[in-house]
């Protein structure tokens, strides 16, 4: 097999994307193809070619991700990875990952992130599962909500998803939410279109996207929900499903706005179930309902994080409590990270430098990635044998410092 890996040109995009679609077994709508062509950053998209045939695809988007403490860190958001079934298991993916991580390092991005089609694929390249998404199917016919004081003062109104003012307002709410939660990505130009792309083929019998705004009596928008309704009827009557796509509320009245939106979604006429496929693990509704057992909760891996430059990545976030720990890092795929790093820091800032001092904690870069956003505890990883404590108390100190009061979460794929 003679293959050539090269940076993609615009003229090659159609062949590249057709190869990606085939590997995923999907046919995208015209709208989706156009959007992804517009969003493609050609200088960081690679194809592997066997003659005229595209047999490998991979790309990255230049995003900014919130890290614990609220800073916004440039990250490489890895995407569009595929290898043709005719060429799989011969190292094509490994070659692309090698090239991509070298490029990310050369660009000075300290972290790469991705959402995996299959979680098993990326650990070998140093990615650790750093966030979960929570799925729920809430039996709204039986589960009751109790809302906080002031919820009745929140006014709800239907708005057109496609109206430019409404769209801008929702984007402003989203942007205001981003710094408050690790893992959220500031929307880059064009990415807002993905949120309201509403191809018929993905509706599965449900309505087009609908939007409801939550407002103060003076008209200040506090939050929004975007959702669909899937009508269903059984012999006993209406049995419709509300499918939630997006819900955000910000500011001091966020609890009331969110509660008003949830109450609205729970109470929609002719429905008896609310389905949400991707919500944060600490979502507000969990604390408002009478019964989470009837909510069919499922946790799934979401954002996988790879520290490409361990020192710069650990310095880019802050720490919940004071920390002074020497990590012995193992990183076979990116050996420039290997060895000892002393991390000192607190809630104001951090320094992470090379050291020859004895190590306190030994772990692979994958575990550091898993703990990076505060979603998975170094103590839990140590209990599982994935992290080794070399100085008594060091894991507890590091685990407390790495934690996040807000569960990290990625609201949308890429
Ligand atoms: C961020 C994203 O875009 S996620 C999307 C990933 N793409 C897909 O899922 C589309 C369908 N699948 C594919 O295109 C391919 O099977 C890929 C990209 C997952 C793998 O490509 P390949 O070229 O076959 O991978 P490669 O040969 O480099 O494999 C490297 C190692 O990973 C293992 N591996 C790769 N994919 C898988 C998998 N899906 N399950 C289990 N092991 C896997 C290989 O067995 C190999 O192990 P080894 O080193 O011990 O022999």
Describe the protein.
Belongs to the acetyltransferase Eis family. Homohexamer; trimer of dimers. Keywords: Acyltransferase, Transferase. This protein is an alpha+beta fold and 414 residues long. It folds into three domains: 106 residues, Aminopeptidase (3-Layer(aba) Sandwich), CATH 3.40.630.30; 167 residues, Gcn5-related N-acetyltransferase (GNAT) (Aminopeptidase, 3-Layer(aba) Sandwich); 94 residues, SCP2 sterol-binding domain (Nonspecific Lipid-transfer Protein, Chain A, 2-Layer Sandwich). Helix content is 24%, strand content 32%. It is built from ten helices and 22 strands. The chain is globular. The chain starts with a strand and ends in a 12-residue tail after the last helix. Bound molecules: acetyl coenzyme *A. The site of acetyl coenzyme *A (ACO) has 22 residues, from α1, β4 and α3.
Summarize the structure.
Acetyl-CoA binds at residues 81-83, 89-94, 117-118. This protein has helices spanning 13-24, 30-39, 92-107, 164-177, 192-196, 254-266, 310-316, 365-371, 378-383, 394-402; strands spanning 4-7, 45-50, 53-66, 72-83, 111-115, 128-129, 132-138, 155-159, 185-186, 210-215, 221-230, 233-234, 237-238, 240-249, 271-279, 298-301, 303-307, 323-330, 339-345, 350-354, 361-364, 387-389.
